[in-house]
Each structure stands twice: as C-alpha cells, then as structure tokens.
Amino acid sequence: MNDIQYTKKNMQQLIDDLDSSKWEDRANAIFELKDISDKKVTKKLIDKLKDSNEKVWLSAANVLRNREDPRVVDSLIESLNDNREEVRWRSAYFLGEMGCSKALKSIELLLNDKSLDVRVNAAKAIGKIGNKGSIDALIKALEDKDVRVRKEAITSLNSISPKKPLKSVSKLLNDKDKKVRSLAAIILGKTKSVDAFDDLIGTLDDKDHIVRVSAVYALDKIGGDQSVKPLIKALRDPHWEVRSDAASALGKTGSKEAVIPLMDALKDENNYVRRSAIKALEKFNIF
C-alpha cells in the first residue's frame, strides 16, 4: 500500500494505533506504515525506538534501519545503552550494517557488556564499520572468556587490518577452542607475513587435524623456502587431509627438496593424497 492509497482517515487511525496500549496494535501499525514517506509518520516511527515493548522496538528498528535519517542513527546509538539485552545487541548489529562510524566508540564499549550476544554483535559491527581506530579494542576482545567473541574479534581484525595485530592473533594458536586456533592460523596465512612462520610451525603438531589443515594452508600462503621442510613433515601426518594439502602446497614451492618426499607420497594408502602428489609432481615435470 502506498501513500496515495491511504485516506486521511485510515492513516490517522494507524498513527493513533502507534500509541495504543496494546503492543500488537503498535507493531501492526508500524508494519502498515513502513512504506509511507510522510515526515509526520517518520517522526512517529522514530519515536517507537523508545517503546517499552521489545517487539515494537524491533519492528520500528527493522523498518527504519535503511532510512538515511540522522534521527534514526541517533536513536539507535542511544539504544546501545538500553537496559534490554536484545535492544543493545540489535542496535549494534543494525549500526554495523549501516557502517555508522559515528557509533563506533559507543559500540566499542559494548565489548565489555555482560551479555554474550551484545559482545559478539559489537565485535561483528566494528568489523563492518571498518575503522582502524578500533584495532586496540578488538585486540583486547581476543581475551574474552567466550569463544564466539574471540572468533568475531579475529574476523573483524582481519577485515580492518590483517597485518598489524600479528602477535595477538598468534597467541590464539594456543587457544583452548579448536575453532579459534584454526581461524587464527588461516588469518595468519592470509597476512602472508613471515613473522608468523615460527608460530605456525608449532601448530602442525596440534591435536586437532582441522587446525593442522589450517596450518598447512597458512604455510602455503606464506610460501618461501622456509615452508618446505615443515610441509614435508606434514606429509607424514596421521590424517589424510593434512597429507593431501601438504602435497598440494609442496607442488607450489618449486623446491627440488620436495620431489623425493612427494614420490614417496605416491605410495600413500589414501587415494586423495596420491592424487595430490601426482599433481604436485606434474609441476616438476616428473609426469
């Protein structure tokens, strides 16, 4: 329904419903008025970002989130301090999607919020906004007690400035959560920085094979002669996926030192490893 289809009477009724004592009426009125560009309606919808009912607040926020109106931004920033957990984390999420740098400092404060959902979405929003001024706040969040916050902080750091926080991310190669260790290895690989090399070598002995696969990926990305011996070692890994990826990575090194180990890998019990070894050796014109 557009502006033209509304009569003054039924539009006024919907506007009146925004102040109804029933939250269902208020939420429904917001939905019915979502496509109306009238300034009076917009102001009333923005007022609903102060509604006492979370469902009404969320209805208004969803309707207004894509509108280029500074009042919407100001209201969402104000909602970051709301005593309702869902309102805080959704406000952070929406402001992140909007790329709102004005909200950055307020969102950074939420990295210390008592709510896990708030901290997770604050870390995510900071990455979406993408301001390098938030690097220190994200590095601190790498020490959060919950794995989900640490993962979002790593991802956001990688998005904002992948090379600067190398030492902080390297520490997470020893994280108690395997997913964090794996993600840390992948991101260190994406930096292609030799400064991360020594830390990654130790990760080839990680107890979880997915983390070891991530370490091989990282060494492959960093490349260079220094990666050859660790990758040859990975050809003897107990898990076939690590051995297969190591073989593929060795094919890219161009190092003659890799030829004999790759030929030995042709006898591997796993078909995927043998195929990877063949493809790697083809790059040495062995086949």
Key structural traits:
287 residues; 18 helices; Leucine-rich Repeat Variant; elongated; mainly alpha
Give the CATH superfamily of one domain.
Leucine-rich Repeat Variant
The largest sheet is: none
Strand residue content: under 5%
Q: How far from one another are the termini?
A: 68 Å
Which stretches of 5+ consecutive residues score pLDDT under 50? none
- What's the pLDDT, averaged over the residues? 91
Count all strands and give the number.
0
Describe this structure in words.
This protein has 287 residues and is an all-alpha fold. Among the domains are: 163-222, Leucine-rich Repeat Variant (Alpha Horseshoe); 224-287, Leucine-rich Repeat Variant. The chain has 18 helices and no strands. The termini are far apart.
Could you outline the blueprint of secondary structure elements for this entry?
Layout: H1 8-17, H2 23-32, H3 39-47, H4 54-64, H5 70-79, H6 85-97, H7 104-109, H8 116-129, H9 135-141, H10 147-160, H11 166-171, H12 178-191, H13 197-203, H14 209-222, H15 228-234, H16 240-253, H17 259-264, H18 271-282
Helix pairs in contact: 2-4, 4-6, 5-6, 6-8, 8-10, 9-10, 10-12, 12-14, 13-14, 14-16, 15-16, 16-18
How do you describe this structure in short?
This protein has helices at 8-17, 23-32, 39-47, 54-64, 70-79, 85-97, 104-109, 116-129, 135-141, 147-160, 166-171, 178-191, 197-203, 209-222, 228-234, 240-253, 259-264, 271-282. It is mostly helical. The model has no long low-confidence stretch (mean pLDDT 91).
